[in-house]
C-alpha cells in the first residue's frame, strides 16, 4: 500500500559554490538575507536577516557564546554601543582609524588608495582606477571610518558621539567592574556579542564587508610574561571552534601578520582565514594586544586600572589576548562551506546544530487519518527541536525545499505507519531513508546530530 518515496537518485556530480551571486539569490529566495530597504532601492552594503537567516545567525551566536561562557574563567558582558567620546581618543580610533581615500574626478568613484589593484575603473571596468586616460584621481586623503552622531538635542562639536567601530572597548573600560563583581582571578576573560559600525570606503561581496555588522569578541586578561602561551592556546581553541561548526579543515588556515601588518601595540597577530569564492579572506583575528588598551584608558580617564595578585602581592596592568570574529563573516563562511549543487538538487549541508530547522514533517497525503498522526508527531518533535511542516507538492519536491535550506531530517507519515506507529526518516546529506518507530524519533535525531561530520 505504501507509496513512500524510495531511495532518490544519487548523482556523482557535485559542485561547490563558485560565486557569491548564486548564494545571494538563494538567500533572498528562501528568506535568509534580504537587501536592506529594498523597496527604496536598497542602501549601500546593508542587509537584513530574514526568518531563516535570523535563526542561523542566532545558532552561530549561541555556539560561540556557549563555547566562551561554559567555562569558569570567562564572564559575559553587553556594553552599550554609544560610549564616552574619550574612549575613542584613548583607543587610538579618533587619530588612527583611517583609510587613505582617493576620488575619481571623472566617474566620481571612491577608492581606497592602498587597494587600487583590486578595484575597477567606473568608466572602463577592465582597467584599474586612474589607468584610463580620461580618469584622474585626487591625491590620497585620510578618511576616518567611525560613524559620528550627536547626543542630545544640540548638534554641535561638544555633543559628538561615535557608533562603536568594535565591541572591544566596552570590555576594556569595564575590566574592573567585571573583575570585582565576579571575583575572577587572572587569567580570566570577558566575552561580548554586539553590533559594530564602520564607514567602509569599499564595502561589498555580499555580507563579507558591510558598514553595520556584528562582532563576537573575547578579551582574555593575563599576567605579563604568560601572554604568548595563552596566545598559542587561544589560536588552537578558536580554530577548533570553527571546525566544531562544520567548516572543513581544508578551507581554513592561519595567516600570521608580518611586521608591516602588525598594529604598533600588538606583540603578535594571526588571522583565521577561510577560502571564499573570492579567495582566502580573514574571518577572525587573534591578537596579543599587550597592556596597551588598559594603559591608555588609565591615562585618558585618570583612573588606575591595575590587578592585585594575592599570591605574590604584586600589582600589574594585565596583558590582553583578543579573539575577534565577525558573526556575519562566520555566517557567510558557514553558508559557502555548506552549499552544494548535486545534479538536480541544491543543498546546504549545514551542521545540524546550526540549521534553522532540525526536522521537517510531512503527511504523505492530505488525508484526515494521516493528518491526525502527523499532527501528533509534529507537536511532539516541536517540544525538542525547531521543526517545520509541509503538506504541499510531491514528497520529492518537499525534500528539495528542505535541502535548499539545510534541514537535516525529513519525516514522512504514511499508511504503513498508521498500522505499526512507524515513520520514514530521510537524511539530507546521504538522502538515505529508514523506517523507524515514531517513539524513537527524538533519540534518533539527537544521536545523528551529535555524531554529524562535514563531508
Ligand atoms: N577588536 C579587534 C577588531 O575589531 P578587526 O580585525 O578589525 O579586529 C575583527 O575585526 C573581525 O570583525 C574581522 O575578522 C571580521 O570578521 C569582522 N569585521 C571587521 N570589519 C568588518 C566589516 N566591515 N564587515 C563585516 N565584518 C567585519
Core attributes:
binds glycyl-adenosine-5'-phosphate; 5-stranded mixed sheet; Rossmann fold; 455 residues; 7-stranded mixed sheet; 24 strands; alpha+beta; BirA Bifunctional Protein, domain 2; globular; 27% strand; 3 domains
Question: What's the short version?
Answer:
Helices cover 30% and strands 27% of the residues. It has 455 residues and is an alpha+beta fold. A 7-stranded mixed beta sheet has the order 4-10-11-17-14-13-12, sandwiched between helices. A 5-stranded mixed beta sheet has the order 21-20-22-23-24, with helices on both faces.
Mind explaining what this structure looks like?
The chain is of the alpha+beta class and 455 residues long. It folds into 3 domains: 20-87 and 150-338, BirA Bifunctional Protein, domain 2; 98-144; 357-450, Anticodon-binding domain (Rossmann fold). Helix content is 30%, strand content 27%. The protein has 13 helices and 24 strands. It has helices at 20-30, 51-69, 86-90, 93-96, 168-173, 175-182, 227-244, 292-301, 327-338, 368-382, 395-405, 415-420, 441-450, and strands at residues 14-16, 33-35, 47-49, 74-77, 98-103, 110-112, 141-144, 147-150, 160-163, 188-197, 212-222, 252-256, 268-276, 279-288, 307-309, 314-316, 319-326, 339-342, 345-348, 359-363, 387-389, 409-413, 422-427, 433-437. The strands form 7 sheets. It has a 7-stranded mixed beta sheet with strand order 4-10-11-17-14-13-12, sandwiched between helices. Strands 21-20-22-23-24 form a 5-stranded mixed beta sheet, with helices on both faces. It has a 3-stranded antiparallel beta sheet with strand order 1-18-19. Strand 18 (339-342) and strand 19 (345-348) form a beta hairpin. The protein is globular and about 75 Å long. The relative contact order is 0.13. The protein binds glycyl-adenosine-5'-phosphate. Residues 166, 168, 198, 200, 209-210, 213, 215, 217, 282-285, 322, 324-326, 328-329 line the site of glycyl-adenosine-5'-phosphate. Residues 166, 168, 198, 200, 209-210, 213, 215, 217, 282-285, 322, 324-326, 328-329 line the site of glycyl-adenosine-5'-phosphate (GAP).
Amino acid at each position: 500500500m505504501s507509496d513512500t518515496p524510495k531511495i532518490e537518485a544519487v548523482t556523482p556530480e557535485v559542485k561547490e559554490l563558485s560565486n557569491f551571486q548564486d548564494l545571494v539569490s538563494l538567500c533572498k529566495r528562501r528568506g535568509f538575507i534580504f537587501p536592506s530597504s529594498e523597496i527604496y532601492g536598497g542602501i549601500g552594503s546593508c542587509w537584513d536577516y530574514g526568518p531563516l537567516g535570523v535563526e542561523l545567525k542566532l545558532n552561530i551566536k549561541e555556539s560561540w557564546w556557549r563555547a566562551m561562557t561554559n567555562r569558569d574563567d570567562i564572564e559575559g558582558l553587553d556594553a552599550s554601543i554609544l560610549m564616552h567620546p574619550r574612549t575613542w581618543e584613548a583607543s587610538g580610533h579618533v587619530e588612527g582609524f583611517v583609510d587613505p581615500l582617493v576620488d575619481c574626478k571623472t566617474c566620481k568613484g571612491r577608492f581606497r588608495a592602498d587597494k587600487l589593484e583590486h578595484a575597477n575603473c567606473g568608466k572602463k571596468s577592465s582597467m584599474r582606477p586612474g589607468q584610463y586616460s580620461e580618469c584622474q584621481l585626487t591625491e590620497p586623503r585620510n578618511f576616518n571610518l567611525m560613524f559620528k552622531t550627536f547626543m542630545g538635542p544640540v548638534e554641535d562639536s561638544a555633543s559628538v558621539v561615535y557608533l562603536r567601530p568594535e565591541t572591544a572597548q566596552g570590555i576594556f573600560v569595564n575590566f574592573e567592574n567585571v573583575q570585582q563583581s565576579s571575583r575572577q582571578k587572572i587569567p580570566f576573560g570577558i566575552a561580548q556579542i554586539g553590533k559594530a559600525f564602520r564607514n567602509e570606503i569599499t564595502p561589498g561581496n555580499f555580507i563579507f564587508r558591510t558598514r553595520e555588522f556584528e562582532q563576537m569578541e573575547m578579551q582574555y586578561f593575563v599576567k605579563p610574561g604568560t601572554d604568548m602561551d595563552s596566545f598559542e592556546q587561544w589560536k588552537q581553541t578558536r580554530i577548533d571552534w570553527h571546525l566544531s561548526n562544520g567548516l572543513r579543515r581544508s578551507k581554513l588556515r592561519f595567516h600570521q601578520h608580518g611586521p608591516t601588518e602588525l598594529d604598533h601595540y600588538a606583540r603578535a597577530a594571526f588571522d583565521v582565514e577561510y577560502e571564499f569564492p573570492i579567495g582566502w579572506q580573514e574571518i577572525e583575528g587573534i591578537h596579543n594586544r599587550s597592556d596597551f588598551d588598559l594603559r591608555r584608558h588609565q591615562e585618558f580617564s585618570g583612573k588606575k586600572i591595575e590587578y592585585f595578585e594575592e599570591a605574590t602581592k604584586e600589582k600589574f596592568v594585565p596583558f590582553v589576548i583578543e579573539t575577534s570574529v565577525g558573526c556575519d563573516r562566520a555566517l557567510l563562511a558557514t553558508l559557502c562551506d555548506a552549499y552544494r549543487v548535486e545534479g538536480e538538487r541544491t543543498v546546504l549541508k549545514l551542521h545540524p546544530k546550526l540549521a534553522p530547522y532540525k526536522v521537517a514533517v510531512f503527511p504523505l497525503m492530505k488525508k484526515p487519518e494521516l493528518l491526525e498522526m502527523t499532527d501528533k508527531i509534529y507537536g511532539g518533535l516541536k517540544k525538542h527541536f525547531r521543526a517545520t511542516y509541509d503538506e504541499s507538492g510531491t514528497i520529492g519536491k518537499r525534500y528539495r525545499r528542505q535541502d535548499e535550506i539545510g534541514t537535516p531530517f525529513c519525516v514522512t507519515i504514511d499508511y504503513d505507519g498508521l498500522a505499526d506507529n512507524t515513520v520514514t526518516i530521510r537524511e539530507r546529506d546521504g538522502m538515505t531513508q529508514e523506517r523507524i518507530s515514531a517513539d524513537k524519533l527524538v533519540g534518533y535525531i539527537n544521536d545523528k546530530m551529535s555524531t554529524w561530520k562535514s563531508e
